[in-house]
Amino acid sequence: MIRIEMNIELDYVVDPQGADFMFNIHAAHTAQQRVSEERLFISQPVDARVHTDAASGNRYLRLHALGGPLQLRYSATVDIHHHRADPATIGEVPVHRLPPETVGYIYPSRYCQSDRLLRLAYNEFGNLPQGYYRVLAIRDWVTRQVAFTSNTTNGNTSAVDTLIERVGVCRDFAHLMIALCRACNIPARFATGTDYGADPALGPPDYHAYVEAYLGGRWYIFDPSGTAIPMAFVRFGTGRDAADVAFATIFGNVQTQAPVIRTWAVEDAARGFELPHHCNEALSSDSGPLLQS
Question: Sheet holding 218-222: strands in order across?
């Protein structure tokens, strides 16, 4: 089991007229991820509400901020008991057997234009044996083809843009891998966490985007950017692409500062906690919906 402790600090200066915020910074509750303790501090005396989306399980914090400084502090202790499996035993799920909850993740979306990558996907991956290893081949192809380079893309960059430019950050790697998976009729979704284990040369700790692909009745974790340790991904949210799971969506005039994120793992063999590490097993932190008969 993995235990992750995290602290997140968000700082804003809000226009005198105020502004509305929607945050997705709370760790999700999943079949394999348990939030054993969490705290939230908001500097302003405002009414803040957290609700859980019934379809995705994402937890959203909504508030209306007054003019002036606004600070949010979120801390949590999260235990992840991954489902681990031999990749050779994990197959793809035919479209006719996909659970209804997964079908939306085989269609194109705003940043993942899979319909424009059908020929590329067929040429590169169409003749590979179906299953976990084909998704792994898609991940490795994206990792090889795109260079991780900070400050080279923006919030409008799509999978097709990344394919053309061949540079990007974790968000862009995830969008391209998702689009290629969907072009192969494999449900894939965008997931957010933190970049535990990333090389400090890439910058201070940050939010991280990765991929979950639906295989063999579960959502399995893939990190096409290759910059962090998947075993330490604390999931915040999942969606069709980044538009669904921004860590902060702001409605109004607000000055923002870069988030300050600290995460560390607890090592305690007596209590069954191990340090996150790279492994060759397939990892899942969500059991996923039941397959159709």
Answer: 218-222, 207-215, 188-194, 237-239
Task: Look up residue 36 and give its two tokens.
Answer: 């054993």
Cα separations in angstroms, 75 against 42, 43, 55, 69, 192? 12, 15, 25, 20, 16
List, in order, residues 6 or more apart from 236 with CB less than 8 Å away: 24, 25, 26, 27, 28, 58, 59, 192, 193, 207, 245, 247
Per residue in 133-158, pLDDT (tens digit) is: 999 999 999 999 999 998 888 889 99
Kindly state the tokens that stand for 92: 């793809």
Residues of the chain with pLDDT under 70: 293
Q: How far is CA 41 from CA 72, 77, 101, 144, 185, in A?
A: 6, 15, 34, 41, 43
- What's the confidence (pLDDT) of residue 293? 62
165: left (phi over 0), alpha (psi -120 to 50) or beta: alpha
- What gap in Å lies between CA 86 and CA 77, rounded to an integer? 28
Task: State the pTM of this model.
Answer: 0.95
3-state secondary structure of 202: helix
Domains of the chain: 89-244 (3.10.620.30)
243 within 8 A of 253, measured Cβ to Cβ: no
Q: Taking Cα atoms as reference points, which of 144, 93, 127, 104 lies closest to residue 244?
A: 104
CB contact at 8 A, 110 and 241: yes
Structure tokens at 101: 């909850």
